[in-house]
Design a protein that fits this description.
two-stranded antiparallel ribbon; alpha+beta; single chain; about 80 residues
Amino acid sequence: MTVSHAVVAALLLATATLGGCATAPGDGQDRYTTELDRLTADCRARGGVLAPNGSATTGRPELDYACRITGATRLGGS
């Protein structure tokens, strides 16, 4: 039984395509988590708490969350 070159090429292409899909979500999740961690640290440094903006998730933490400053007082003035 011989396998044609077209079948081998199709199998290789399918394997490469599925392999690319399998790694993409993990990479995206790592980027999202890294950015969310950075935003959380920046917000805490300013005396705030990172809170979700609403129910929609965009995949971009800078849009999904806002820094809510707690215990703020008025600055300056007389």
